[in-house]
Amino acid sequence: MQISNEEYQQFKPLLFSIGYRMLGSVVEAEDIVQETFLRTYQIDEQKLDNKKAYLCKIMTNRCLDVLKSAGYRREHYVGPWNPEPLLLEKSLYFDPSEVVLQKEGLSIAYLRMMEHLATDERAVLLLREVFDFSYLEIANIIEKKEENCRKIFSRAKQKISRIEGESLNYDKNKSIIDRFIQAFQMQNTDVLLELISENVTLYSDGGGKVKAAVRPIVSVSNVLPFLYGVIKKIPEDFYFEVKNVNSQPAIVIYMNSKVHSILSFYIHSNKINELYITLNPDKLPHSLSKYKIQGW
Known about the structure:
Elements lengths: L4 H19 L2 H15 L10 H25 L11 E2 L19 H6 L5 H12 L4 H8 L3 H14 L10 H17 L2 H7 E10 L11 E2 L1 H14 L5 E7 L2 E8 L2 E11 L2 E8 L18
């Protein structure tokens, strides 16, 4: 099967979006996108009714294979595992030729919740809820019966809590984060306690490459001292910006003109419920993403 350059540009964002959401890794998603396109040359085009469906099938099933083999690696990962942050230009989102779907499939909080699902559950949930595939299409993609896919979707929905639209309001969340930064700089404990949930949890991902907490840190009384400790150890020439990361505002910290760490948030009911600090250098972006994410 031949893929024209126009078709390549059309399908690549969709395939990358599926791969990134499935795996939480930019590099792995990129590799499988290229592998998917290469495999098309081995297929007789006359036997295909729908190129898009075929590409999505190859991409999804290859991601399922990777997830199954990744279990061992995740079990031996040093400390909490955070999805690889995706640093984005907000202007990339507004392409009127694309269908705008639900945003929760891209946030760090949603991707972390996906870790609680079995591999098939993850695939069905994403394809149905984020990419709006029919159950029949999903059944053809993952090679299961349509009724089984309905049951898998129902089971997946019961396992993870839904991140409501209110929790994904970019401007509202940025306002809260701006207040958090100001209060943190001024060490205004009263305001910080107003902004942060009492049972807040912080997940610090260093991957054994840099120093980080090897267990989740729970409660505001433990999280705040940890954050103050991190800041004290960073040289004075560091600087930070609030950037669009996974369609949500996050704090990107720079040192020596490189990204040092990224602090992302899950905000619900105007309170910071979870924080995700990614320090693992293998997961930190070197520049703004070149991807146009579908399903945003």
